[in-house]
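User: Sequence in, structure out. Go.
Assistant: Echoing your sequence, followed by the structure tokens.
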Amino acid sequence: MRLVLPGAGGALRDVEVLCARLVRLYEDGAAAVECDVGAVTEADLGAVEVLARLRIAAGGRPLRVTGVRPELRALLDLVGLLQLLGEPEEREPAVGVQEGVEPGDPPL
């Protein structure tokens, strides 16, 4: 199933309708939904809000975001919400945390 976001700020105006449509797709039996954001040409916090609200409406069900422009991807990364695209975050391990223990390693 596919959900297409309108461009030129229309997604933010229609966010409640889009969320309701997404929920309806899942209720109608969609195992996963593809959310096409290719028409979203302005990388602003309105676009971030729409994606966040759609992710919440998905309720943990698979939501694949496609058509993401580099500017929007950069903004999502900047505000720490790149996971809204369904991609895992790349993080450095916390300082002082060992990834594994080898025999003979001294205790910390």
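User: And one key feature?
Assistant: The chain has a mean pLDDT of 85.
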